[in-house]
């Protein structure tokens, strides 16, 4: 497998966590979203993903983009450990939380949007994340055990940790979100979340390395 990834991309991080949890070895092709005007806009990368976004995973003779679609494929083809619960209600909760982050928070505070906002990008990112986290905190109070849904790591957790990292990067006050903070701390103690961390990637700049 080959993963086209950017060390700081939260969507790429979700897939790196899934690959680590499932013990899938892969090669990384770094795609620097800032260098050369954005390497994702190159003709070579556009051939891999016409949306010009990371991550892209080449695996089993197919090329997949969109982090949740990639994770679903890994779940379908390599089901251990399970990232979607067997119980239909819990499975729906996992998908709800994953979509809440992947569709409702991350896209409106990602790099392409912030570049268009201009001077108020920090304020914009903070507002987007805070409004999403206010809802997410309430949801998690009904679904959480040790992690987002019960006591097993799920696709929801793969979305949560990178989004909290974004929040910290944009200096969001995490005080109002004790459940999010507690779950994030527990997840960051797990090896799969450590090895996939942005500070430990092949393309991480020296000054940001762990």
TrEMBL record:
GO terms for molecular function: glutathione transferase activity; maleylacetoacetate isomerase activity. Keywords: Cytoplasm, Isomerase, Phenylalanine catabolism, Transferase, Tyrosine catabolism. One of its GO terms (cellular component) is mitochondrion. Its EC number is 2.5.1.18, 5.2.1.2. The keyword Cytoplasm applies. Pathway: Amino-acid degradation; L-phenylalanine degradation; acetoacetate and fumarate from L-phenylalanine: step 5/6. Residues 87-206 form the GST C-terminal domain. Residues 1-82 form the GST N-terminal domain. Gene3D superfamilies: 1.20.1050.10, Glutaredoxin. Belongs to the GST superfamily. Zeta family. This is Maleylacetoacetate isomerase. It comes from Columbina picui.
